[in-house]
Amino acid sequence: MSSRKAKSIEQRLYYSLHRIRRVEEEIARIYPTDKIKSPVHLSIGQEAVSVGVCETLRKDDVVFGTYRGHALYLAKGGDLKKMIAELYGKIDGCAKGKGGSMHLVDVDNGVIGTSAVVATTIPEAVGYAYAMKYQHKESVVVSFFGDGAVDEGVFYESLNFAALKRLPVIFVCENNFYAIHTHQTKRQSKPNICDRVITYGIQAERVKNNDVLRLYERVSIAVESLRRGETGPYFFECMTYRWREHVGPDEDFHLGYRTREEAKTWIDSDQVERIGKMLEAEQRKEIEQKVESELMEAFAFAERSQFPDPSELYTDLFKEM
Amino acid sequence: MQRNLIYGEAIREALDQVMEEDTSVILFGLDVDDPKAILGTTRGLAEKYGSERVFCTPLSEDAMTGAAIGMSLAGLRPVHVHIRMDFLLLAMNQLVNMAAKSRYMFGGQMHVPIVVRSIIGKSWGQGAQHSQALHALFMHIPGLKVVAPTTPYDAKGCLISAIQDDNPVIYVEHRLLHYQNGKVPAKPYTVIPGKARITTQGSDVTLVGISYMQIECLRAHYYLGDVGIHAEVIDPVWLSPLDIDTIVASVLKTGKLCVVDNGWMTCGAAAEIITRVIESVQGRRELRVRRMGFAPVTCPPSPTLETIFYPNGRTIASAVYDLVKGGTNDWLPQEREDLKEIEFKGPF
Asked: How far, in Å, CA of B227 to CA of B256, rounded?
């Protein structure tokens, strides 16, 4: 890989990582004003997982995610203005103000859906992958979920069916150790998610330390293999860490279920800063300016947009025949 | 051209014709390709359309329902089959949280054209977990359509309509209805959502029978006819959307309504139908109402208990007699041998 090419990947990664970080910092800043009409589950600290994976994908690849979905939506190319308008409950939101932060969607950019009920989109990703195979389409499907989803029965049902049919799906487990406030070791008899997955005949590996470059490299290989028509599925357990509270804009170390000291290792190895430092000062500044101007534009768009007309309450329940 | 088919054959023909026409239709569920072929309703389809389009699934109702939704988002029209309606409880999260809500909560960008077939069991000691009728649970949820055809004609037409519908449809069969014989056109046709059928005309009382209870209501109609009471029997066919107008028009004529559900009564389909009729008719006409359904207990297998767990033609006739005459009359008709094997002969 030439240094010029490598730099270009780093620029792309930094743009996406920094943009997500700044969008969520701005959401957190604005949240106390009550302009945002939706509970927010911030990805601050975890951006590397969505970015490392989505940078390997094309527009016609699709992702399914969770209520902690801002990072995934943006990393996959979801429209920023429509996302902020959705958080504001406005008609120009990505779901017309009918979804909120937990149900972001951008079909044109392959964000097929996010769900508030843990693990519910995993089988959907598998079904979508079945359809891609059946229709002989090249699109790769990626299912994002947390370590909490691994507790659910549907996770194992989905793995089994995906493996049975050798489907072109990549499972991405964002392991941030906590399901709300409960540590993985209090919920799972062994913290060996990859070992369990491998028994289904699925290639699985753990990517440590929130390492965005390593994740990008490993997922690229999986995506290229699926693109060549080789069989899936693949599984990645991505070790990461949530800096803020489960839901809401603040920190939560005062609750006592985890310590600031535990978080420090992860904050010290922040991937936004790590990749930023790899760029030349000028490149970095250029990206940061672009992001700030996008941000201002997106929030201004959300402010300007109207709330839905009351008549909207009754539309979109069924597709009219 | 019309032939006599049984209900199950009508379902099989619907599946075959839709799959022949549209390669986006795929069919799966436990045992759809096994020797018994879901009471024959899927017989030969795996051989004809291949194992990618017709396949047996792992025993994973939750994931396979999610997979069906995912397939539908990618442009397929999956038909997911459950030989026991009781097992749908394993799929409720996907049906209620995703299938019903995806169109609305994603702002109209998506639609979920899935059909979920399931069969209600009855008799031969099916017992607690092979007998449940859960259609009312699904009627409660905005975003789902629910249909419970009772005749071979409607079984075929409603299934084609359900598969062609761009929205999730819960298609409710009944084990005993699979024996019904009736005229079925050879060509594909649809019975579209939201239209009830008046199955016998009458002026004294309106009798609404849901799913298999439609057959028991037709039996009751004959018993009542013997004592000069003319019941208008209605089959709602589609429970959601519900054609309340046809029922209301009948009640405006008769002033008396008995709804017999093939299910429990509390928060049930009968409660819903009666409430909506009262909301519409009160102040315009005097009316009296009655609902019947499963006894409010778990279904027992022992025949002496199972028999009285369900309403039947005679107990329905008895209740309707009281509704029409007023008071308690202790009238119960003698069982008529000729009504044991009743077949639907509806006006088409």
From this structure: 17
Q: Both tokens of residue A102?
A: 């937990």
For residue B192, being part of any structural domain is answered with: no
Tens digits of pLDDT across chain A (321 residues): 444 444 589 999 999 999 999 999 999 999 999 999 889 999 999 999 999 999 999 999 999 999 999 999 999 999 999 999 999 999 999 999 999 999 999 999 999 989 999 999 999 999 999 999 999 999 999 999 999 999 999 999 999 999 999 999 999 999 999 999 999 999 999 999 999 999 999 999 999 999 999 999 999 999 999 999 998 999 999 999 999 999 999 999 999 999 999 999 999 999 999 999 999 999 999 999 999 999 999 999 999 999 999 999 999 999 998
Please state, in angstroms and rounded to a whole number, the distance separating the CA atoms of residues A32 and B292. Answer: 54
- Can you give the three-state secondary structure of B322-341, one letter per residue? HHHHCCCCCCCCCCCHHHCC
Using a CB-CB distance cutoff of 8 angstroms, which residues of chain A are in contact with residue B64? 123, 157, 161
Per the document, the length of chain A is 321
Question: Which chain A residue lies closest to B75 (C-alpha atoms)?
Answer: A131
Residue B77 pairs in a beta bridge with: B25
- Domain extent at residue B23: 2-185
Give the β-pairing of A182-183 and A178-179: antiparallel
Residue A254 lies in a domain: yes
C-beta separation of B29 from B54 below 8 A: no
CA separation for the pair B217, B291 (Å, rounded): 12
Query: What is the per-residue DSSP string for B182-206?
Result: EEEESS-----SS--EEEE--SSEE
Phi, psi dihedral angles at A12 (to 5 degrees): -60, -45
Cβ neighbours of residue A69 under 8 Å, at least 6 residues apart? A41, A43, A101, A102, A104, A114, A144
Which of A99, A126, A157 is facing B106, going by the closest CB pair?
A: A99
Burial class (CB in 10 A: 0-12, 13-18, 19+), B34: exposed
Report the domain count for chain B.
2
Please check whether residue A317 lies inside any domain of the structure.
no
Q: Which of chain B's residues have a Cβ under 8 Å away from the Cβ of A105? A: 106-107, 109-110
State the amino acid at position A221 in one-letter form: I
Clarify whether residues B208 and B180 are in a common domain. Answer: no
Query: Alpha-carbon torsion B269, B272, B274, B277, what sign?
Result: negative
User: A279 CA to chain B: closest CA distance, Å?
Assistant: 38
Looking at the DSSP bridge assignments, the partners of residue B181 are: B6
What is the number of structural domains in chain A?
Answer: 1
Yes or no, beta carbons of B70 and A123 under 8 Å apart: yes
Residue A291 phi/psi, 5° resolution?
-65, -45
Q: What's CA B105's distance to the chain center, in Å?
A: 28
CATH of the domain at B71: 3.40.50.970
Q: In this predicted complex, what is the ipTM?
A: 0.95
Annotated catalytic residue B130: yes
Residue B214: give its domain's CATH number: 3.40.50.920
Number of other residues whose CB lies within 10 A of the CB of residue B171: 24
CB–CB contact B145 A107 (8 Å): no
Count of CB pairs separated by less than 8 Å, A with B: 145
Q: For residue A151, give its domain range.
A: 3-77+106-305
A209: its two tokens: 């330390």
Question: What CATH number is associated with residue A258?
Answer: 3.40.50.970
H or E element that contains B55: strand B54-56
